[in-house]
Amino acid sequence: MIDLLRHEETSAPRVRAIRVSAAWTAEGALSLRYRLDAELDRILIPAASAPERSEGLWRHTCFEAFVMGDQAPAYREFNFSPSGAWQAYAFAAYRQGGPLAQASAPRIVREEEGTLSLDVLLPAQDLPPGRRLRLGLSAVVEAADGGLSYWALRHPPGRPDFHHPDCFVLELERP
Description:
Layout: E1 2-3, E2 5-6, E3 15-24, E4 30-38, E5 62-68, E6 75-80, E7 86-93, E8 96-99, E9 107-112, E10 116-122, E11 132-142, E12 148-152, E13 170-173
């Protein structure tokens, strides 16, 4: 598992660590596992509900994956809420795009036992084309007081911006 880094301009006194792993399944799907180690009673975690496509998930506790393939600067963004809600976007270039119309619902499995874990399975057909993919993995955590902290593999200078090309640092080659 890889540690996500907290953006220096945000505080998260109740979060000890956020870790993520990424791997391929035998079917070519992308398997992601996010693990939030925190005082969970001090974090606002959306209640589990029926999986549905939803906007604005990043305004509350959620986990995200940004995926770029051979057709850079085009990329995809996927948002996963602990509630089971999700969203997918397609961008032609930096912040130029919108919802990915034909996205399949990812499989999201939530576990809580002192930590919050979210296992996500993204179908191969929803990923951008390319033999080698570059990923930016991130999280937004909402504290009980409503404050947000931003976590990523890497942060660009300035305000939190998960779309920035400097965030796409994990490389995975398709099997």
